[in-house]
Amino acid sequence: MSTVLTLMPARLGLPRGRAALPETEVAASQRGRILQAVTEEVAARGYAATSVQHVIGRARVSRTAFYTHFDDKQDAFAQAHLEASRQLLDLIHDRVADLGRSGNEVGWRTRLRTGVEAYLDGFEGAPAYAVSFMVELRAAGPLLLDQRDRVLEQHARTLARLAEEAATEDPAVSQPPDLEVIGAIGAADELATRAIRATTSGDVPAVRALVEPIVAIHEAVLLRSR
C-alpha cells in the first residue's frame, strides 16, 4: 500500500483576485507550494545547484512571497524537511494504530513490521521526498544534519515505546539502551539512503525489499540477551 506524502496545500488553485480568499489562506497556499517546490527542485537538480529562482518558478510565486515566508533556500529546505518528517512519523503512527482498530489482538512483531512497511511506503510514494531528504540533505550543511539527527531520535523514541510494550507481552524482549535503539534506526536510515541513491532519476525507489533486513535489525536489538 503506497501513500503519497505531499507538502502541497489542500487548496491548490487560488481564484482570480487576492480578495477572493482570506490572506491567511493565500499565505498558506504560497507556503505549501514553496515547500513542495524546493523539495522537487532539490531532488531534480541537487541541493547545491538549486536556486531561489528555480524554486519560485516551480511554485509560481513571486520572489517577495518567497522571502515573506523564508529567510533563504536553506530555511525553506529545512522547513520542508521538518514538515515531511512529521508527515512520515504520522503515517507510521496511523498505520500501526489502524491495527488496533481491527478488534483483533496484534502482537509486537506485527506492529513492528507494519511500522517498517509504512516508513518505506512513504519513500516509494514520494520519490522527490526520498531523494531530497535522504540523499541531498547531506549537502545542505550542519543545520540540516543536526535537524536530521533530531528526526532520527524521534523515530528512535517510537521504537523504544514499542520495546516497552513488547516487553510486557513477551518475556524474551527487554528494553535496549538508548544508543542501541538509535543505532537500529540509523541502520534503517542508511539502508534506505543507499537504495534511494542507487535509483535512476525519476524512478520509484525500490525500498520495499528492505522490509526484511530492517525488521531483522530491530528484532535483534529488542531480543538481544542480557
From TrEMBL:
<dbReference type="Pfam" id="PF00440">
    <property type="entry name" value="TetR_N"/>
</dbReference>
<feature type="domain" description="HTH tetR-type">
    <location>
        <begin position="28"/>
        <end position="88"/>
    </location>
</feature>
<protein>
    <submittedName>
        <fullName>TetR/AcrR family transcriptional regulator</fullName>
    </submittedName>
</protein>
<keyword id="KW-0238">DNA-binding</keyword>
<feature type="DNA-binding region" description="H-T-H motif">
    <location>
        <begin position="51"/>
        <end position="70"/>
    </location>
</feature>
<dbReference type="InterPro" id="IPR050109">
    <property type="entry name" value="HTH-type_TetR-like_transc_reg"/>
</dbReference>
<dbReference type="InterPro" id="IPR009057">
    <property type="entry name" value="Homeodomain-like_sf"/>
</dbReference>
<dbReference type="InterPro" id="IPR001647">
    <property type="entry name" value="HTH_TetR"/>
</dbReference>
